[in-house]
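Case study.
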Amino acid sequence: MKDRFLRALKKKPIDKTPIWLMRQAGRYLPEYRAIREKAGDFLALCKTPELACEVTLQPLERYALDAAIIFSDILTIPDAMGLELSLVENVGPVFNKPIKNISQIKQLHIPDPYDTLSYVARAIKLANNELNDLPLIGFAGSPWTLAAYMVEGRSSRDFAKIKKLAYSEPEAMHLLLEKLSKSVTSYLKMQIEAGANAVMLFDTWGGLLSQPNYTNLSLNYMEKILRSLEPLGVPSIVFTKGGGMWLDKIARIGSTGVGLDWMTDIKVARQLIGHKVALQGNLDPAVMLTTKTLIEKEAKNILDSYGMGSGHIFNLGHGITPDVPPENVQYLVDFVHAYSQQFHDQSTN
Amino acid sequence: MKDRFLRALKKKPIDKTPIWLMRQAGRYLPEYRAIREKAGDFLALCKTPELACEVTLQPLERYALDAAIIFSDILTIPDAMGLELSLVENVGPVFNKPIKNISQIKQLHIPDPYDTLSYVARAIKLANNELNDLPLIGFAGSPWTLAAYMVEGRSSRDFAKIKKLAYSEPEAMHLLLEKLSKSVTSYLKMQIEAGANAVMLFDTWGGLLSQPNYTNLSLNYMEKILRSLEPLGVPSIVFTKGGGMWLDKIARIGSTGVGLDWMTDIKVARQLIGHKVALQGNLDPAVMLTTKTLIEKEAKNILDSYGMGSGHIFNLGHGITPDVPPENVQYLVDFVHAYSQQFHDQSTN
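After joint prediction, the assembly is written out as follows.
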């Protein structure tokens, strides 16, 4: 069943629960590390469509995953805006020219994705040609999450700079979020036109906001993006890490599915929003570092908690980490497919 | 009213909402920085009762705070267990001898607080003598949070080591948590005997667990500690950062009050658990970096959200950060006292 992922997202009958993993094309795979070494660095890999396509497909060659996600990074947009992204070992992404004041925000241009981000469209086209009807997921960061990186200059413990901006200079903050929303919208439109079969918004830092700020600075802008994409008819998934308290609000912004982090109880989430949206998640990524017995136990627990019927896409509650043994992924994928059959009516397939 | 904090914690009538701030004795105060320089380093400051007493009292000399909290660190217990704590600039606390295997856990001794941690009791006695009946709060880290630091060796982004231990070697994990629970219990008993009028458990990392793991690895052990302290009749506050989804569970473990992080809506929290426990919190610490106008707006919002009656202790949703202007704290404390009078029946006082 090639369309298991898309059918589950739309809650249509399926034979097995589909599975893919956030960061499935990544450092835990030796073949990924080989290509990355060849490319020189992470950004060069993102910007070389042939190589980005190749690493996108790598996990699909090993495992019976139900979807590919295009290999890229959420920070390609700020990079295209001129902030100069680099990836520093043991620090993570760093912008050489972070946003420091309102005049910089005013001067920021909204990138034409067909110009400065066309390498992503090219990688999507190449990957789609190889995927044999298996769905390909496009993605972008949420405006708030992008803004947080752009103002902090890098990941942060308390995000004091961006929060200070948000509280003290709301007009500047909203101007930045507005520009990012437009950028994300046209970027995702390009990805869809290039062949992405679904899109996902990663709101990695939304969970660090108070509830009113979350609505005002993150959720509203994600809603704006989703409403603009609606005419294209492509399903979408929204994922706010740490957003478990606000699921009822997240489920109302027009996405097809909602991603759950591992702190959230998927049974509670289904009761709360499962009638409105599909749910994606939510195995603790740390479980992947342990044994097959434990992976089975915890995956079983999630599948049992979701229960009968379509509408669940199995995933981790956050990206897979570099030190996961590849054979553990094999075991998880096969177990989810085998065990989940009891939750689906086989006669309808 | 000297006992405003303790009365609010027990939901007795008060004239104004009490306020204190997590990490109120800290680096944002120039007089703290002066003493710390004199002491040499952070740990020396903790371990010198006269200096620890002095910094405990510093914020009370500036502001009309309703409680003092003894100046110390949650990592004094693992330090007393022999893990050799040091504080590294730009990294934070680091253990020179982190826990790496089960045999190390088996060999860990439960410290006699009257021996290796008596400096804390001494600082409490000294501070109490100076406080003129203003309450003094004692504290400790939750067993899970202490274990996380002890196994990771320092703060971490994903806490992969401790989680791997928790999943793979549950017996070792529980042995460690059991030893830490006993250590925390006797440590808090000593603090109470020395004169602490209330105690607080800081569960900084509990919010990174899945719900079943949170119950199993963090909440159950905090409950055990609180039940052991019950005969002493001293009120208690439990604070799990990121625990907003589990308030109903947190409110059932026997604490007098529950601390709220800034992501949690205090109005929702009061509806959910306000009949069982007092609530402490929950201004976003980043607000303290802004202006008096904004501090007033956000503090007002929290006081309005809690509404009428006793049972609210104003605080931040996490510790105050080093770059807060001291005059902003002055403004907040005075504003909370002035504005909150309308929420309390002045005729009963």
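Observations recorded in class. The two ends of chain B are 9 Å apart (CA to CA). The domain at 4-348 of chain B is CATH 3.20.20.210 (TIM Barrel). We will return to this complex in the next lecture.
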